[in-house]
């Protein structure tokens, strides 16, 4: 079986990952990856750090990515996009709208949990 050299679906702490872009890049290099895409949910905020950290690893190719959430009849799907221009101001406005909506839904969930006597605060989330 050939060795895996690429991962085009990685998340950082800027969405639902646990590592900074710098930490994630170091892990990817340590594992022998040659091509990666940071594709956080509805944000490109980790890409500047990604590109800065990648300068230390000239053999690593970074593909700027994103995972967009979208509603479809019967649910939600996530669409991966690659070669994203994270400096595009119009894109950033749309992404901010997505994040604001997600945060509002999350706050509503925390409130409903509190109404069901679940001891959790928005600050903790």
What is the end-to-end distance?
42 Å
Largest sheet: 3 strands, parallel
Global outline: globular
Order of helices and strands: EHEHEEEH
Mean pLDDT, as a whole number?
A: 91
Description:
The protein is an alpha/beta fold and 125 residues long. It has a domain at 6-86: TIM Barrel (Alpha-Beta Barrel). The protein has helices spanning 21-30, 47-54, 89-115, and strands spanning 6-10, 35-38, 61-62, 65-72, 75-82. The strands form two sheets. The protein has a three-stranded parallel β-sheet with strand order 1-2-3, covered by helices on one side. A two-stranded antiparallel sheet has the order 4-5. The protein is globular, with a radius of gyration of 17 Å. The model has no long low-confidence stretch (mean pLDDT 91).
Layout of SSEs?
Blueprint: E1 6-10, H1 21-30, E2 35-38, H2 47-54, E3 61-62, E4 65-72, E5 75-82, H3 89-115
Parallel strand pairs: 1-2, 2-3
Antiparallel strand pairs: 4-5
Which keywords apply here?
single chain, TIM Barrel, three-stranded parallel β-sheet, two-stranded antiparallel sheet, 36% helix
In a few lines, what is going on in this structure?
The chain is an alpha/beta fold and 125 residues long.
């Amino acid at each position: 079986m050939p060795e895996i050299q690429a991962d085009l679906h990685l998340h950082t702490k800027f969405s639902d990952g646990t590592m900074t872009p710098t930490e994630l890049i170091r892990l990817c290099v340590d594992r022998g990856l040659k091509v990666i895409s940071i594709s956080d949910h509805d944000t490109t905020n980790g890409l500047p750090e990604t590109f800065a950290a990648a300068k230390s690893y000239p053999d690593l190719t970074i593909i700027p990515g994103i995972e967009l959430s979208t509603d479809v009849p019967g649910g939600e799907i996530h669409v991966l996009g690659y070669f994203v221009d994270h400096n595009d101001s119009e894109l950033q406005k749309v992404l901010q709208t997505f994040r604001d909506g997600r945060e509002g839904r999350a706050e509503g969930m925390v409130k409903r949990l509190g109404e069901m006597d679940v001891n959790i605060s928005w600050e903790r989330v």
